[in-house]
């Protein structure tokens, strides 16, 4: 599995287990406050929101399984199950939406009823389009992490049938195949975690043959894959989000701390300010450069936070944030009300 997903998953499970009990997906609007979006089963989590206020996320069904299903929520419809990529359902089927664009088109990944993990693109009109064809029982590939307003998608895909090697890709409706973005020289893994409306992609590249470390990258059609830069003291580093101004955020591990960096054209890599603890996660950035995520204080308590600018001190917000839109609405999860 992509290492940054392992970090986020461990963080989510730890937070739930130590703080919340049952968690629900929430939407926070600075003008109207916090809103519980409910659930279709047990715990629910919101991951992304578009400028119309439509939200995607996951919930745990109440039929005894531990595997998540995806949902889409709007003011008009409430929370609606997205179904399973490829159709049908089973006790091991999974649907994990990760992003939604202005048209309400959704991307993510899931495990079909046949056990295959696939990346998907979903629209209200046509339902699921499965993007990946190579299969493996492992969780280390076949994902869609980001979509822009032009329906351009990125993530990672298994490059051969039953292979464990995966590469970042570019895809948009009408392309017959995913475009393999390759890797940095000498590497053998890569992923795409964010894409802006210019088609610029932010992600990571890994060599298991040399240093076994993820390094942050960007990709453009003009320049291909480029090394983003060295993060001091880092063991693992990925870029996770990029806006149209070229502002990029990413995550890094040093072994003693988990931190968030940012950069922009003409600016070197800098670290976001935290709350005094050793963990700072910036997970989403909007077109104005506002960033949301979470951070620990000196007592290791976890809070949702917002950075008004990449250089500002974070303010605490009333949910563990995972996504935001360009009108300032934030989604994530908090204790069920």
Can you describe this structure?
By secondary structure, this protein is mainly β. The chain has one helix at 3-20, and strands at 23-29, 33-38, 44-49, 55-59, 69-74, 78-81, 94-100, 106-111, 117-123, 127-130, 143-147, 153-158, 166-171, 179-180, 189-195, 201-207, 213-220, 224-227, 236-242, 248-253, 258-264, 267-271, 276-285, 291-297, 302-307, 315-317, 320-324, 330-335. Helices cover 5% and strands 49% of the residues. The chain has a four-stranded antiparallel sheet with strand order 2-1-28-27. It has a four-stranded antiparallel sheet with strand order 3-4-5-6, with no helix packed on it. Strand 23 and strand 24 (291-297) form a beta hairpin. It starts with a helix and ends with a strand. Residues 1-18 have low confidence and may be disordered.
